[in-house]
Design goal:
Elements lengths: L8 H20 L6 H12 L4 E2 H8 L3 H13 L3 E5 L7 E5 L1 H22 L4 H20 L1
Antiparallel strand pairs: 1-3, 2-3
Helix pairs in contact: 1-5, 2-5, 3-4
Length: 144
């Protein structure tokens, strides 16, 4: 690979991710959700039976202390519940409330609409190729 090929890839990935999240954040603000909250709700909605607080912090890329404060606020606001883990009483499992599960459907629909708008005009083969490239880069980064 030449020194110029791929030189801008990391910056483009980061900027695309930032702008995409910002556009979704703007569309979700009327629901009363900060970016941290809607991302947390989406992560928990993908997990059957909730997630350990430590796993959730890892998935969100934030410290457990930062997550703990956010979880406290979300428990107070009725979005999530904390439960002691059956296997380890010291470990807390975070689960969505019914209110948040219902909201996760709205978040997913809004995200799907935005995704469709952003990918408009691209051929399905190009999108599939891009996904393959990104999966490869992710796997390589995780293995280093």
């Amino acid at each position: 690979m030449s020194t110029q090929t791929g030189e801008q890839l990391g910056a483009l990935l980061a900027e695309t991710s930032r702008v995409w999240r910002h556009r979704l954040d703007v569309r979700l603000r009327p629901l009363g959700l900060s970016q941290t909250r809607w991302i947390l709700i989406l992560q928990l909605s993908k997990a059957e039976g909730g997630l350990a607080q430590s796993e959730l912090a890892t998935r969100l890329g934030i410290s457990q202390a930062s997550l703990s404060a956010q979880i406290e606020r979300m428990v107070r606001d009725g979005w999530v519940e904390r439960h002691a883990s059956a296997g380890d009483r010291r470990c807390k499992t975070i689960n969505l409330t019914e209110q948040a599960r219902s909201l996760s459907r709205s978040i997913r629909q809004t995200a799907a609409t935005l995704r469709d708008e952003l990918l408009e005009g691209l051929a399905e083969d190009d999108i599939a190729a891009c996904e393959q490239v990104l999966k490869h880069i992710l796997q390589r980064a995780q293995s280093l």
